[in-house]
Amino acid sequence: MVSTFFRSSRAISFAFILGVLAASGAVAQEGIVGDWEGTINSPQQGDIGMVVHVTASEDGTLSATLDVPSQAGFGLALEEVTFEEGVFSFGFSMVGPGTGYEGTMSEDGATITGMWSQGGGSVELNFARPEG
After folding, report:
1. Does 5 reside within a domain?
2. What stretches of the chain show up as alpha helix (H) in DSSP?
3. Is 11 within a domain?
């Protein structure tokens, strides 16, 4: 009887810890949720503005879409969207394998500084929250 009690208590404690960890992951994701604007400076095409829209499901799983207004691209699905230890990344295989982004969020959560990779090359791409 005593061993059954301890096993039940351990199971409840384990379930509680898992719940806390899942909730803390969801809370950590909230810092990235929202809209982010950035611009790539392309020698061939000039400045290319981008807007990433990041959302999180109840379990903390992230998803995102990309708008590229100058190229009439809106709501383009991004893959493998993650935000871990201050690093935001996503893939964008629609334009080719290996295309994506990785950047680090500033301490104040206002900007993300990183690199856009495409076609074997990389270019700086920094995001900030939209003004107003």
Report:
1. no
2. 2-29
3. no
Give per-residue pLDDT as tens, 58-81: 999 999 999 999 999 999 999 999
How many structural domains are present in the chain? Answer: 1
- Residue 105 domain-assigned (yes or no): yes
Residues 6+ apart with CB under 8 A from 44: none
Per-residue pLDDT reduced to its tens digit, 88-97: 999 999 988 9
Cross-strand partners of 51: 37, 67
Residue type, 39: T
Range(s) of the domain holding residue 73: 31-128
Q: Collect all residues with Cβ–Cβ distance below 8 Å to 54 and sequence separation of at least 6.
A: 32, 33, 34, 35, 36, 62, 63, 64, 81, 83
Residue 6's pLDDT is 39
CATH code at position 52: 2.40.128
Distance of CA 77 to the CA centre of its chain: 12
Nearest Cα to 90, choosing from 58, 120, 112, 110?
112
Short-list 84, 29, 38, CA closest to 62: 29
- Res 56 pLDDT > 90: yes
